[in-house]
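Late entry, written up from scratch paper. The run itself happened at the end of the previous shift, but nothing got recorded in the book at the time, so transcribing now.
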Amino acid sequence: MNIFGIKKTPETEGFLLKRMVVGPIGTNVYFLINTNTNKALIVDPGDEAERIEARLAYEKADPAAILLTHGHFDHMEAADELRQFYGIPIYCLEKETALLEDARANGSETWGMPCTLTPDKTFCAEEEVILAGLRFKVLHTPGHTAGSCCYYFPDQKILISGDTLFHGSYGRTDLETGSDTDIVRSVQRLLRELPEDTAVCPGHMDLSFIAFERRFNPLSEG
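Output as recorded:
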């Protein structure tokens, strides 16, 4: 199934990528499924845990872990309920734990729904990981928050970019621990280092590709 309605889809043999849009800010939740085992990774479950559970049941997926790209409430509000329902761990970059555990800093208090979250495990920057039989690299991409990260799946050429890199845009930097300088460096690093046919799967809005972003993103070095 082509999740974005375009010809090229980030789907290869033994691997399936699915998306749901949840919550008041339209957050993209991703399911990365190993079709050989049905084991799955859930990325950024921002809201609507019951809908997520129903979708995973429909896909016959067996969740193995929850990955967070950063600590803002709209990317993690359903994570604890899913952790308890499936008995699986939550991961984030080690630098992001403080934001997750602070309702003011993670934005949930501002929206009148204060929540905090303590991850079970943390990644180190640039760590290479295999979970659910899927290989990926944890790229530390500060700017939107100090502990923002992206998950790069080199075998499939897929980047789960969170709120660092969007289609023709990039993440805001005026929230807690954000940095204008860091977001420029992070986006330019992604555009410089990743193959041009890498699919970019952002935390909001539509899919893009590194080739497109190199040409049209306002932070591109050209």
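Residues 15-216 form a domain with the Metallo-beta-lactamase; Chain A fold (CATH 3.60.15.10).
(Scratch paper discarded after transcription.)
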